[in-house]
Design brief:
By secondary structure, the protein is an alpha/beta fold. The protein has helices at 5-12, 47-53, 119-129, 220-225, 244-253; strands at residues 20-24, 26-30, 38-41, 59-63, 81-85, 108-112, 137-141, 161-168, 183-188, 208-212, 231-234, 259-262, 265-268. Strand 10 (208-212), helix 4 (220-225) and strand 11 (231-234) form a beta-alpha-beta unit. It is found in: Cytoplasm, Cytoskeleton, Cilium axoneme.
Amino acid sequence: MRSQPLLLHRELTKLGGLTSLTLCRRWQACYNVGHTDEYAAVAMPNLTGVVTSLQGLHILDLSGVADSIPAGFSSLKQLRMLCISGFDQDGAAFTISPDFAACSKLESLVLDGLTWASADTFVQICSTLCHLPALSRLEVIGPDLPGTDLAACSFNSNLVHLTLDCALPLLPPGVLGLTKLTYLLFAQAESTGSGVPAVGPYLQSLTDITLWASPSKLDSEFLAAAPKLLHVNLEEDGVIDIPNEAIKSLLGRLPAGGSISWNDLDFDRPSS
């Protein structure tokens, strides 16, 4: 069964009071014991036409529907949460329309599985996101980001939660100035040397970090720059070998009451 995009567009635009909308490009047709899942592609309506008709949306989830943020999103003055998931797309490079900066109430943005044209494109998009005054949560989830030069990359200073799960060779220096950040997930590309650059007295609010990298990346200088860091979650993903000695060394450098989660094991440092 295939949806009729014009009919779907017509019906959606009638829902002027809608506050939450999820559009998924693929749907599960049926599932029975002994049979595999069956999926059918769903033709989607024109996104710009839909969003300009649903100006009261607070939550918009586009799972595999869009690989960019087109013009027209500036009409979503009430939008709080937006998820753009690029699976099953044609590989077109991700772009953001400049008028997206008008979504002044946007608090959470998830960019999942999108195609990045270059590191410069990533830098430009992050610069656009700096103009969103309410943005506090940003998640960038795969694929690997091409290029290595992110020295000029700046991030919205209001970020509290930041996920960079795109195999970066180095933690972008711009992250280090995020004084409101309390949660950071950083997935480092394999075998790229030091994962954390020299830092200054920043990251004053950071309490939780998830690393797809060796704990040796959290050197003493980094820990000194994040004095409130208590909880470290280490992920191996079958790639990075984390010896117990490194776990113990890192735990000993955390404040009293700190903890490390690794490989389904929890290591706690006594409070006294």
